[in-house]
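Proteins fold reproducibly. Take a sample protein:
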Amino acid sequence: MKMNLNIAVVGLGQVGNYLLNELNTKKKEIELITGKRINVVAVSAKNIKKKRKFKVNKNIFFKNPLDIFKLNKVDILFEAIGMSDGISKRVVETALRNKIHVITPNKALISKHGDYLAKLAEDNNVNLEFEASVAGGIPILRTIKEGLATNKITKVYGILNGTSNYILSEMRNSKDSFANVLKKAQKLGYAEPGNPKLDLNGFDAFAKVRILSALAFNTKISKYKCLMEGIEKIELKDIEIASQLNLRIKLLGISEIINGCLFETVHPCLVSKNSYIGNVSGVMNAVILEGKPVGESILQGEGAGPGPTSSSLLSDLLSILKGDIKKPFGIPNNKRKSIKCYNVNNYTNSLYLRFEVKDKPGVLSRITNRLAQYKISVKRMIQTPDKKNNKATVVIITHKTSELNSNNCLAKFKKDKDILKYPTLIRIHN
């Protein structure tokens, strides 16, 4: 590798702008560590006049990022636009075809097109690095690809979305509603001010799960539909009842091999308040790996924001500058196989079921009888009457049952006029 390398940064949002400043302020440090000199020769964004914390040099600014490739002197490109398709994909694939190393935090892009882009990188003998796409500043991908490369990983799970974790933690601490805490998260910059849907509905976490699966199990990126639920239906009442049960609610992303098949899911889980994962609060992320012979490994840190993300981006840069040409997913792309999908109907958990019912004779027995019809046995029950409104809250903790049984059973309650709303279901993490 040559001694002087030219860098382009495409996308100057929070992450891209922060990164640009880091490249400038830490230039000497990077050169000391790697023995290579770096120079930012191109930046691109929609609008150079947009107010930013760090000044953009207009002499190296390109409104159209594809014009950068006319320079014929870019060695490494950072893509920080953040879309799965469109200009993000065109920039990355153009860079790889032009034998330019690419570093990106774009989880949407990698989870959708990672296999294709990995092949492009390998065919052109350049790096495609995406450490920052999962869990921000936590070096989880490098840990899997390098630190645990000789281990057989069977399960990887954790808190992969800082926004959701902050909301659930703050609801518990402040005893405030979901809607109010979401507004607070938006004011603090933890949630998108306009549309935070991708954080709340589980999609963001699931994109990360797919990347983790491919790395952990040496497989192609899964295209299967999965069990995906967000936190939008979690109420303060559920948080408070969970606390009474010495449990906490967390949005978990889970990927594991079950009977030789891949199972991926994102959904709220009840976990013990004494467990490690139960005590990961605020915007923190945590990833737990289970494998042989290593056993259980835990990594925790800030999962989002320009600082942690930039830390991972620079880590990828250092790897490239040291001359390491690596396979994007740890092993050759043609050695990565597709794997069968585990039937979600067979997924088993103990369940937390909350019913809002009319307070009248026979309702409770009707609920328990219907559960029994679908082989769902009751482990614990809490009944809280609301005499003023002639209603009651009934919480049932079940023994383990399958998704098929629970879905079929709960569907039957839709027609029961004494059940005031569709039951709330939260799975208890095994």
